[in-house]
Amino acid sequence: MAKDSELWNFICDGPFVPTKNLGNPLVAIPKTRKELNNADRKAIEKNFCAKKILVCGIGPDEYNRILACHSAKEIWEALQIAHEGTTQVKQSKICMLTTEYELFRMQDDESIQEMHTRFTSIINELHSLGETIPRNKLVRKILTVLPKPGHFVKDFPLLKKDQYKNNSDKAAKRNMFLTDASIKNTPLTIS
């Protein structure tokens, strides 16, 4: 773990440059290769190791983007800009996705599964840009965009006809039963 965190430091902070102090007001100047000691060489190797890890983890198209980079930090920054954009682009993406989230509605010809997939895609993109929405707000949003319970009758007119037919059959049977029961339970009166 310590090795990985050291490599990450080289990626975030930039390469290690061994220096020596010279002059009356001390000024740090880079050491020549002959002046390097073992600790300096190990730190320089870690620079190269961090760069190697980044280069080996990308494809040929990405490699062309970072070909001119000299350090792991430069590579990382080039990849960030290529995939996330500059800070201004990132903020505009967040703004656009937030608006899309706020205006999100289920489309007429869309199934609930398709709607959920589209919603999840928006949320995942926002999350990848560092913008998270609390789970309770996500649930509330989904519940507000779900169709009302009666929409299935509108969507399935045949079901509607069958439902009314079944309901009228049931009502007729119930009425017949009530009529029979009321005849049986009515006391006979002789006039």
From TrEMBL:
* One Pfam family, short name: Retrotran_gag_2
Entry protein name: Uncharacterized protein
What is the primary gene name for this protein?
A: LOC107771796
